[in-house]
Structures
1.
Amino acid sequence: KLYIANLVRAGYAVLQADTDTIWSHDPLPVLRAMNATVVCGRESVGFCNAGTVYARPGSSSTQLFLDELAWRLQLFQNHPEVIPRLFPWASPPYYSNSDDQTMLNDVVTSAVIRNRTFLGAIALFEASNKYKPAGPPWRNLTEKHDAWLQQRAAYRQGRSLPVLVP
């Protein structure tokens, strides 16, 4: 994601797709015709899929969005000791720092509600889950309710936006 941010800053449009992506048609004509500077796949449940992202230069909001995503990934992958500063109940080994999809969704939520949040990626994945059964149960944490409120606000605000990032 750092390369995407740097390439867009240098003036290039970037289409990043996972290796398991199959295109039945050339997506570039449609993507170029869209009036958006960042496009990411969105499932019906309201989450963005980090497997396909198209970004192009031209918007300071887009650049901030891409820089924020790259910063988060670099921070949590290279400095996992930051995680318990955000959530004191988190304990090693840390899992949340390896998931770019949930971090992308946290950045989208942060952009839409205009408030930096780490609840959908870091908090959720440091709680008990199939990869980390020793964490505290997500259902018992106050962060669960806060995350729900933020996601709900982002969904409501995002429905009226012409693009994901204002």
2.
Amino acid sequence: MANNKSINKLKVNPLTLNSDKTTPHVNEMGANGFTIMELLVVLVILSLATALLVSSLSVIWRSFEKLEQRQLNNAANIGGAWFRRSIEGAIQHHPDIPMFFGDSKRIRLTTVYPIDDSNVGPTKIEWNIRQNTQEAYATELWYTNKRTGLEVLVLNFEQEVWFSYEKTSGQLSLLFNEAHAELPKTVTLNKLSDAQTCVTEWCNTMMVAHPLHAGVAETPPEMAVFGEYEF
């Protein structure tokens, strides 16, 4: 009987051992894992952050587009001002020697307002319309200083453009090639909006320049009297 009592004292409940061993394992998993509520909160925060980022990027891109458009407008305004200024400064030298020639794609003249060197006096320059090699219908407006050889790409156009001229008589023409010294009343840069209608009609005007001394060159009194004049 004594032996049975000692044995009973040494007996240990197996359930107690199992629960003691498994309880720390369950507590560890609960501490390191996420509940469904926590995951939902994280997903909501991520969705809000993504929405804010997308809206911010759209605002940034719109700002960049406006800045780029403003730069393009400024470039067009500057290029147009250069073109008009150089035409305004067109001069003549001798009443029998023409110094201004123009057709639909090129203008040759002598001006006191070259766009790249305004302190050297009268300068021979050219304006040329060239085809853009990258795009089928795009064109470019180039400036050339005949004295220095400098060439500058001034403007780009998405369509065909051409020059036209108004003589002092009011006649419109695509060619200005007078036998005597004369300057046109206006020089116009036109764009081709529709090739079929532009065959017989004047197209949309893009720029208009007015030489300050338009018309036929004045004949000095000395030439009328003596037949010659030292220019």
